[in-house]
Amino acid sequence: GFLVTGARAEVLQFETLNIRPYGIESRDGFLSGNLYEIANAIAAEADIEIDNSLVPLARVIKHIQKNKPICTIVIRSEYSSKISIPVADIHIDLFAGIIARRGIKLKNYDDLDGLIIALARGTYIEHRFDSDENLQKHFVEGDLQAVKMLQKKRVDAIAGGLSALKFNMKSIGMPLDSTEKPLILVKRPFWLHCAKSLQNGNLLDRL
Could you tell me the pTM of the whole model? Predict the structure, then answer.
């Protein structure tokens, strides 16, 4: 199984979001990232051996839905609490919203009207934005592609987690002053979540 017990210490499968800067894989296969390191630290403190891998968000959600015995760090929401067990607040917040290129000032939600906004496919921000069919949303493969489109002025703005967007801007040498102050649409806490299949036994108490 995925949770190995017996003579060896139990090995917990941990899935870290494969989104920079939360989970990063270098060209030579070295794994890092702030949520990746936090997961390792939580396991070390609990004296639990983990197999920590980087997995796309959509696949993490699918694994949790199917009750695969894993733990992960994702935004706590009504949905995440329904499909998994929220174990602990890790005291890091996600700020999500919109970053527009220089000259397009965003003071409130109505300022998004008429803008072409790039965002990674599968991105969820908050209900009003996610369900708004009047906005011109251009879906792309990931945050990095969205940032590159903004840099080339092919779109007016980008949407997503602000730390991830800014990390990708920095990675391609795009100066922060080439954009305006972000419009923050939501602030949500990251929590350690585990699949409901792990609720038996003392593992969650140790985490």
Answer: 0.80
